[in-house]
Amino acid sequence: MKNHEISIVDDEPINLMILKKLLSPSFLIRAYKSGAELLQAVEKGVKPDLILMDIIMPGMDGYETLSELRKDPANLGIPVIYISALDSLIDEEKGFHLGAVDYITKPFRPGIVLARVNAHLELKQARDRLKNQNEWLEAEVKRRMVENQMIQDTTLNVFAELVETRDNDTANHVLRTQNYVRIIAERLQKNEKFKKRLGDDTIERIVKAAPLHDIGKIGIPDAILLKPGKLDYEEYEVMKTHCKIGGNAIRLAINKTLSVNKTDNEQGEITALYFLEEAERIMNYHHERWDGKGYPEELYGDEIPISARIMALADVFDALTTVRPYKKAWSMDAVVDYILEQKGLQFDPDVVDAFETEIKAFRQVLCQDRTAANKN
């Protein structure tokens, strides 16, 4: 069985006949009298494993034919060997410059032609095998990354659902706030001030980390977390510790992971943990205020991480627009008025500006959630 196909291009019938007689016992041969005929065949789907081509031909010469052939990226892997009476170094250099893999001068010796053809076919086979292997490896890496991402997302959802299970009054809170966080972050990205700080990857990390913002509530006693009414001063002080409970838990997990992987990653830079570091910032500081009167560290202005500033507004918006045991849901207009009043006080002015621009998007998320709740 002939496994390789070779195209021969030469305007001299005698040369075509000699080369066909030499190669046909081992290879499937297609012969063309001009470069134009070869290009037409390739365009129709003929993909030879190797091309033997003369240079001096009427109409389109061998140089022009090769140039046209290489314009299609799909043809870059086809090796081309020139067989020509032109034997100057300049002619050879021109051929190699255009992408030919070899150059045989006429009159040629059959043994030389066979040796060169076999050598370049073996090289092509090796390149094809390597290409196929690389494509398989790339596909496998992509598959595993998708799989790992699914596991990671599922784990995050489990944590978020665990928090909601303990605090029934915040049903769907994490999903709504995640949507609000994305809306604000993507709007801030259009602000020149935040363009470099909020790249697409950073936004995805913030959005992914947002559902974990209240995970520290797992450490709050039921008597306080589930109290059907407003907390007194002492109870509120305990509730405030949920920020550090969550942040410390994430930091401990990160440090343990880095310690285990130290030999493989001396710098401690594990990409998969970047979003957890973002989650730590959000957990610790989403109750800080722009004016420095928040908790737990009373950070001021830009001292507060941008992800926590975004989360702060999203969290408050959702808390005010939903029913809690100790309050009714505020109207959308009342919440908007409150947030605008708190510009530069509780909230970062730029974050408030982004919110004001995207009020319609916020309203849509809230309405969709309420519609879904009513159907259930």
UniProtKB/TrEMBL annotation:
<feature type="domain" description="Response regulatory">
    <location>
        <begin position="5"/>
        <end position="121"/>
    </location>
</feature>
<dbReference type="InterPro" id="IPR011006">
    <property type="entry name" value="CheY-like_superfamily"/>
</dbReference>
<dbReference type="Pfam" id="PF00072">
    <property type="entry name" value="Response_reg"/>
</dbReference>
<dbReference type="InterPro" id="IPR001789">
    <property type="entry name" value="Sig_transdc_resp-reg_receiver"/>
</dbReference>
<dbReference type="Pfam" id="PF13487">
    <property type="entry name" value="HD_5"/>
</dbReference>
<comment type="function">
    <text>May play the central regulatory role in sporulation. It may be an element of the effector pathway responsible for the activation of sporulation genes in response to nutritional stress. Spo0A may act in concert with spo0H (a sigma factor) to control the expression of some genes that are critical to the sporulation process.</text>
</comment>
<keyword id="KW-0597">Phosphoprotein</keyword>
<protein>
    <recommendedName>
        <fullName>Stage 0 sporulation protein A homolog</fullName>
    </recommendedName>
</protein>
<feature type="modified residue" description="4-aspartylphosphate">
    <location>
        <position position="54"/>
    </location>
</feature>
<dbReference type="InterPro" id="IPR052020">
    <property type="entry name" value="Cyclic_di-GMP/3'3'-cGAMP_PDE"/>
</dbReference>
<dbReference type="InterPro" id="IPR003607">
    <property type="entry name" value="HD/PDEase_dom"/>
</dbReference>
<dbReference type="InterPro" id="IPR037522">
    <property type="entry name" value="HD_GYP_dom"/>
</dbReference>
<feature type="domain" description="HD-GYP">
    <location>
        <begin position="148"/>
        <end position="371"/>
    </location>
</feature>
